[in-house]
C-alpha cells in the first residue's frame, strides 16, 4: 500500500443510520438491505480527520484541561489505525459508532479506508466490526481498556 489517502464517494448516509444500540451506547444500523461485498462506508476528506503522530503527540503533551481531555478522548475512542498509513483516522460522519463484535457482519479494508458487508445485512440490523482486525497503534493507546480485552483474546 502506498502512503497516500484517496477519498471517494461515501455511501454511509444512504445505507445506514446511527441510533441507540443494545450492545453499547450508539450503533450503526442498516437503513435497507446491504448485499454481501457492498461498501457501506468510504472515507472522504470531509468525513475524517487524519492525525499524524507528531500532531497526536503535540496534543498529548498539552496541559490537561477539559478541552484537551475531551479532544484526546474523542481521538482515542473514535479513531482507528490503518497500519500501512501510520496515521490515525478520526471518523466524523457517524461511522465512528460502529460497535465491536468477534462475529462481525462488516470488515474494514485499510488499503482503501472503507468498510464492506461480510455477508448480507438486513434492514434494521446493527453493523458490527471486529476491532482486533484494526491496526494496533504503536504510539497512541486507542480504545482504552477495551483494547486490552480485544488484543489479549487474540
Automatic annotation (TrEMBL):
InterPro entries the UniProt entry points to: SET_dom (IPR001214), SET_dom_sf (IPR046341)
Domain SET: 14-132
SUPFAM superfamilies for the chain: SET domain
Pfam families, sorted: SET
Protein known as: SET domain-containing protein
Amino acid at each position: 500500500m502506498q502512503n497516500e489517502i484517496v477519498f471517494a464517494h461515501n455511501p454511509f448516509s444512504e445505507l445506514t443510520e446511527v441510533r441507540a444500540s443494545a450492545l453499547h451506547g450508539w450503533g450503526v444500523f442498516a437503513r435497507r438491505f446491504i448485499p454481501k461485498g457492498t461498501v457501506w462506508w468510504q472515507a472522504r476528506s470531509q468525513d475524517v480527520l487524519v492525525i499524524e503522530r507528531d500532531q497526536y503527540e503535540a496534543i498529548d503533551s498539552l496541559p490537561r484541561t477539559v478541552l484537551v481531555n475531551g479532544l484526546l478522548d474523542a481521538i482515542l475512542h473514535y479513531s482507528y489505525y490503518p497500519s500501512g498509513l501510520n496515521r490515525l483516522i478520526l471518523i466524523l460522519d457517524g461511522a465512528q459508532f460502529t460497535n465491536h463484535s468477534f462475529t462481525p457482519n462488516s470488515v474494514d479494508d485499510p488499503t482503501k479506508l472503507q468498510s464492506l458487508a461480510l455477508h448480507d445485512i438486513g434492514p434494521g440490523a446493527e453493523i458490527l466490526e471486529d476491532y482486533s482486525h484494526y491496526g494496533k497503534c504503536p504510539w497512541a493507546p486507542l480504545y482504552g481498556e477495551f483494547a486490552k480485552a480485544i488484543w489479549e483474546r487474540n
